[in-house]
Amino acid sequence: MMKYSMMVMLVVLLAACGSNNGSVIEPGKMKLVLWDMMRADEVASIENSRDSITNNLLMHAVEHYEQVFAVHAITKEQFYNSYQYYREHPMEHKDLMDSLSAYATRMKEAKDKKEKDKVDSLQKIRLHNDSLAPKKDSITLKKDSIATAKKDAAAIRKDSIAAVVAKKHVADSLRRDSARRGLSPRPTNAKIDSVRKQFQLRRDLLKRAPLRLDSLRKRQSMPIQRL
């Protein structure tokens, strides 16, 4: 990208040949001017890709170069003369290009670090949110378990009541059937005891019957005594 930017600037420089007015810009400031012009080239390249007119890169670049000159408070002639000076002095030109390359590297590293810090920050937020998710899930599960337990308990109570009602209904139905058929109701404990006593009495009477029969026979066999 740097070579491409230098090519665009070189075209502009050639168009401005013959101008030797103005002082030479010192290396530190010249480095910053060149850096901004490289960035202007990138913007011009993007704008040219969107332009309906092809091969219009130079026009877009020149527009942004004028903005760079205004930001650094220099004239177009000052920049062209300074650039021509450094090209005519190879050692100073090399030092300028090396300084510009190192500056570009630092700027790239700073940009990469900023983007990495942003990604790390987003990752920390995501991890924090993920760590909170199980707590929310456990609370939700606990609420669901309580709701399910209450629902099951209510269902069990409902089933128990239904079973009691059904049992009572069956008993009532049996009693109604017994009444319609003229069947005796189920004997109570008092009636059972009365039947037992009657049975015991009859059994005792049967046991005593032979003794009475023998006594009667003896009486019949005895001679009748006359008075």
TrEMBL record:
Residues 1-21 form the signal peptide. The keyword GTP-binding does not apply. It holds the Pfam family DUF4296. Residues 174-193 are annotated as: Disordered. Residues 24-101 form the DUF4296 domain. PROSITE patterns: PROKAR_LIPOPROTEIN. The keyword Zinc-finger does not apply. Coiled coil: none annotated. Keywords: Signal. This is DUF4296 domain-containing protein. It comes from Filimonas lacunae. The lineage of its organism: Bacteria, Pseudomonadati, Bacteroidota, Chitinophagia, Chitinophagales.
